Amino acid sequence: MPSMNKKPRTWRTRHDPLADVWDSNVLPLLKSDQEGELQATTIMEELKNEPDASVQDNQLRTLQRRIRDWRATEGPGKEVYFEQLHPPGT
Fold first, then answer.
1. Secondary structure of residue 43 in the 3-state scheme
2. How far apart are CA 63 and CA 42, in angstroms?
3. pLDDT tens digits, 12-38
């Protein structure tokens, strides 16, 4: 079928709106948050308070996705535990 011949797209269709502030402003905040409690809305408020603020409110969802992806690959580790079941009589 023709739909099976499609390859996944590897290029961006739009300019990244956070490219200017990601390395200089967002990453230091995320790296200093060891507990992973810092939310994207808080970071967005910090970015809007910058003197040369280039971010807008409609870019919040993009920031949330970027933070989610960064935490999954490079963020602080999560506590993992394995529940132990002790059934009676064994």
1. helix
2. 11
3. 888 888 998 999 999 999 999 888 889
